[in-house]
User: Fold these one by one.
Assistant:
Number 1:
Amino acid sequence: MNDGVMSPSQPQQPEMVRIERRRGGVALITLDHPKVNALSTELLRQLLHIAESLHRDPPGAVVITGGDRIFAAGAEIAEFGGPIEAAQIGGLFVEALGAVAAIPRMVVAAISGYALGGGCELALACDVRFASTKAKFGQPEILLGIIPGGGGTQRLARLVGPARAKDIILTGRQVDAPEALAIGLVDRVVEPTDLLDEAIAYAAALAAGAVVAQGLAKQAIDRGLSVDLVTGIQLEQDAFVEVFRSEDSQIGTKSFLESGPGKATFVGR
């Protein structure tokens, strides 16, 4: 089914982000803003609306994809202006991509073609990145005399290390799929014709598991990255206690005691 994304105050706006709840518990989000999937303010608002709907009613897992030639080309440059516009656009990027990152389930990016600027930042906000062999990544904002404003300086550095992040951001160069895999920017590279099927199959396998525990583990990892080790371990302890309130924890432990590991059928509660 489709989750409507049109704002009541702007019914004339076209649908730029689609969501489909698939069998197996996977929610497929598709960016559709011809010609280059620019992340305009309207697209970001629609993406934010969809991400918030997945907070309220989480699926088993999420896949985000774009076009075959261009995953997402970045911000809508025509909307840029001075510092006031920068604050508005940057704030919306942070809010929308933060909402994607905070979805309490695994979010898989399926990236074919170019993921540049804000498009790369959207991929970075996901938990796992599958790329086609023709994918290219970059933060080319420096070539416009500006810097990333959607989390690129922070998420990229945490993913590939500060030296590689500085190289990519300060030169504005593009990273092809083999290099992206080698430096940890993506997690899997597949043929373009297999990309979406493999991403959805991976997400479906996760969706069949203990999704409540997955969400708590994801939250502990993500929050732990921004605090010291002692605080991070306490976050883990809090999540460890919380997970024992789930029905799946009872199912899993009982199944282990009766049949050994890997035999439980979880219910997602």
Number 2:
Amino acid sequence: MRTSLIVLLLLLLTCVGAHAQWRKQTVNTTASFRGLSVVNEKVVWASGTGGTVIRTIDGGATWKVIVVPEAEKLDFRDIEAFDANTAYILSIGNGESSRIYKTVDGGETWKQQFTNKNEKAFFDAIACWDAKNCIAMSDPVDGHYLLISTTDGETWKPIVSNQMPAAKDGEAAFAASGTCLITHGKTGAFLVSGGDDARVFRSNDRGLTWSVANTPIVKGTPGSGIFSIGMHDTKRGVIVGGNYEKPADTVNNIAFTSDGGKTWTAGKGLSGYRSGVAYVDDKTMIAVGTNGTDISADRGATWKKAGSEDLNAVQAKGRKAVWAVGQKGLVVRWTN
């Protein structure tokens, strides 16, 4: 009887797990998305190619597709949203193609707040502590990452980047999922790198000063390094990456910290290169990439392949609000 009961429970667990999957959304666009901002269970924003921004305020039942005026040629690789009305978007590219826009009316109108004038700069990501305090970053210029910030939600000013450890030759960041730069808590910030090195830069004072830590993530080629970072609390965090030119490689593509980013320890179990990672809750984590999705239910100790969709970015605000985006208008929601 006891053996039969155990077998029955295992079968039930298997059935429950089998029904957990990505559910594709109906969104009227072919834009490719890498920017994603999950506000809550109802409100989600994403951004991508062709100057495109999308938004749902009913949990995905309907989507509004927006093309930002006079930005049709831009690729918005990152978005930071705070409610159904307020969001920043950042476009990538050399020179003036790197820009920041903001809406306060749900995307009806957009104000261009920042246009890059430095021909050497190439902006990758934006991150915010709140609706008025944000930071954005460019790949290294003259040996240092170029940083700008706003403290009023309107104007952007340079942060003196020589207060940051120098970038190594061939080291840069990946504008792959909007999570090569994140904020945490009231004053924390993290920036991750790839290429000839794979390091984690961290700041405790909103980007004024920085320290840096080495990691075991694969490095040494233009397509290898850290692509995404997630922090669960002030101590525990995760980084993922690998080599996007070899998406099936599974070596040195994940690492963990338990001391707030000071040191990083290699993990294992991902099915390949991953461009995005997110904490769902205290124990559950999810990572996405070109060859699919991996999920862990034990804080990253073990991982299970959970889908083969080609996805760029993932975000979660609890178990009922897990979203991911990818190429050619692909938007998916995790359902159990």
